[in-house]
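Side project, low priority. Logging it here so it doesn't get lost.
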Amino acid sequence: MAKQKNIGVGVIGFGTIGTGVVRVLRDHAADIEARIGARLKLRRVADLDTKTDRGVRLPAGTLIDDAAALIDDPSVDVVVELIGGIEPARRFMQTAIRAGKSVVTANKALLSRHGLELAAMAEKEGVTLGFEASVGGGIPILRVIREALVGDRHLDVYGIVNGTANYILSQMAEGAGEFSEVLAKAQAMGLAEADPTFDIDGTDSLHKLVVLVAMAFGKKIDPARVHMEGISNISGADIEYAHEFGYTIKLLASARITDAGVEARVHPSMVPDTHLLSKVSGPFNAICLRSRALGTSIYYGQGAGMMPTATAVVADIADAARAMLSGSAAQPAYGRPATSIKSARVLPMKELSHEHYVRLSVADKPGVLAKIAEILGRQGIGIATVAQHERAKRGAVPVVIRTHKAKEGGLEKALARIRKLDSCRAAPNVIRVEEALGEAD
């Protein structure tokens, strides 16, 4: 009987996800071997911190502090990068690829800037680049697009791709407090980072959207040109008004392919309570894909965390192992040659049209609303509804306006004029109303 082949694995980064990967490789070793026909052997783990107890016992000599030595180790066939950031992660991956080793990563920040460059290198060297864990954690959305739906044409991709932001908004909707209070609770529970900036300002969602656009549409977009807003300005009052109107506020990452370019944006949205995305609560993710043949499909699950993300990383390791065992050429990381993915224009936000929720704080005196309506009307913006439930405080009263569908550029001009009114007591808060998610224009 032929000796069973081993595939050597090296993990750079022994933090939360790295620890999860080690656990999955250890605890599910027999199942993985039965499925791929070889054993995935953990050869090396590299981390600058070799002293902290991660609750996982490694064989003597496995944990080292030198990533370069891990990459150079001839017993390591697959290098897993889990340190995050741009450098030195990019350099480590380039070195591994040039050495003829397959690479797996969960690094969406790096992929959003250099993913296609790394994919082209991997294709040239005939090795695998896997990054399923970079979007949606344990949700296999990239695999679905690349493999299961290879015969379809994708038109829209949108959804909730940051669990921390979704947890905060879900808790606020349940009356747990205002944004700052809920964020502090999430940090105390370990559901939000000590520095949660990337999660709450939309940056993390933006990085993932760039990867999704390349995978779904075969287009490269510049992250700097994508409109991005976070959730820190969302108040309990906004959530209550949304509920009254039949909506739930979610931080959405959305993209649509058009003849003029790619419509890509990240911002809080009012999602109709009839849409499944409105039901996604806590730290969960849900990604919707609208395709020409299939129509709309939704993929739901845990988008972050040690074990969900680790399962996606190990799946990519297994794919790399299968390619090595079969002797077949590695499949292109994006489901098509990286060099075929060309830059596309990102449509400026001012060119897009939405219905809008606008919350104002204005002086409690006659004629104010009429003046605001006049300003909106000059930009071709019609008012659908007006709500005012709260009483005046210190001479100011909150007024909520829901507009008909209008150009973002026109609304921006109107709000600039409204801010200059003597009767305007605070900057208006604007949330887009997603009345027709995933529907064709």
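Brief comment: The mean pLDDT is 95.
Revisit when time allows.
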